[in-house]
User: What shape does this take?
Amino acid sequence: MGKQDCLFCRIAKKDIQSKIVFEDSQVLAFEDVNPQAPVHILIIPKEHIDKVSDLTPEHAEIVGRLVLAAKDIAAKKGVKESGYRIVMNCNKDAGQAVFHLHLHLLGGRKFSWPPG
Assistant: This one.
């Protein structure tokens, strides 16, 4: 599992504490330490993948698991009916700060479009 110096790999290995809201054998979800909405959860694969542009067809299942985890967490956090946003940033210009594939699940407030 993962790179030694990767923050999210260290969280997945529980070397760094986080507020975990979901975990299974392949996915971990935890509260963002700098939330941009009342609900802001990061959902990661336990396997280290740097970014969206590194995905291959073999990653289709894990990407699906991330999205399904987001759907279930949104229901648990009470934002399923009001609405939520799922965001994946790819590379620095898009806002990716940690180079370990992750989804942002955001909810609990009204969002505008276009973002950012």
Notes: DSSP finds two helices and five strands in the chain.
